[in-house]
Amino acid sequence: MKALSLLYLGLVAASLLLVHRPSYEPGVSFVLLYLVVAVAVAVAVALLLLPADQFTGGFCAAVYVFYAAFVALAIFFSGGVSSELHALYWPLLLAAALHGSWRIGLTALLSVLAGYVLAMLPAILGGAVDAEDPALIFFRLAALALTGLFVLAAARNLAGAVAADDGYSVDEDGSIFLEMVAGELETHRDVQVAVVLVDPGREVEDLELLLERVRARVGEPVLLGEGSVFGVILSRLDERGVEGAARRALAAASSLGSEETRAGAAIYPHDARTAGDLLAAAGQALEAAFEIESPSAIVLAGQGAAGSEGSYRAAR
Q: I want to staple 176 with a disulfide (CB 3.0 to 4.6 A). Which of 92, 171, 190, 200 is the partner?
């Protein structure tokens, strides 16, 4: 993100030189364009000065939305359809590849498309475009959309390849982990199967090292989403064994600087009889662990009386 902001500083400077060329038509609304450029430059410089821990997924997505909006304003105030500043949109389409996240990339792509349409809309509605301009407008829109979709697909494959090289799986929407749980239940129908969800907290120093330690001490971890929460599937363990495995995972996180560690677990067939229900029960147990006022907490989903919603057993 900081490198992209530095790139935008250079692109904005080049754009100002471009729109001041004698051959540039139509005339530029220089005052309004300078206001837009001043804000964009101020934000780019501020991003360069911010600490690295500020750049969460949501923050980066918001910055991409901001950049897309101000590029749209720059295009609008520098001629609209005839503006040559449409190239400023292209770096934003690389968001998915830069972050390895299709969610951030999709946010950037939708922002680019919405900004482009809004920048072109006044000219289209005002009937101020020539006969050849509509084709140019839709060609640019199609080019942006297709390029963005290609980058999204490439980033999704890249994320999977990187995860494979790192030795652990990344499951952004939970579908892969759900299939793994279902496969484990099919293979071990006559034994207990546990799902343990672990939130190591935001202060963990090295997530990759944590996953390596969990793999060695507990089992194969699967990252769920873009955060640090991961899941582990265990079989042939009773409640004490599951609780012990969860304790080892939390201890590994604590050894890497985390102070707020939580774990939730559910066991088949006591807590649920399907993969979806088992995963949901473990998720509810993890949520319950956050209600315990303790630096570290483990909650096991318990099977209550028939017809009841169930109970929980907490281990601090």
A: 171
| Residue 227 to residue 249: CA distance in whole angstroms | 16
Q: Is 161 exposed, middle or buried (0-12, 13-18, 19+ CB in 10 A)?
A: exposed
DSSP H helices, 78-206, are: 95-99, 102-125, 133-166, 175-187
- What is the residue-averaged pLDDT of the chain? 80
Among residues 118, 140, 166, the one where a domain terminates is: 166
Same structural domain for residues 211 and 142? Answer: no
pLDDT tens-digit map of 279-307: 999 999 999 998 888 888 999 987 432 22
Q: Does residue 187 sit in the same domain as residue 275?
A: yes
**CB of 283 closer than 8 Å to CB of 275:** no
pLDDT digits (tens, 9 = 90+) for 204-233: 767 888 888 898 889 889 888 767 889 999
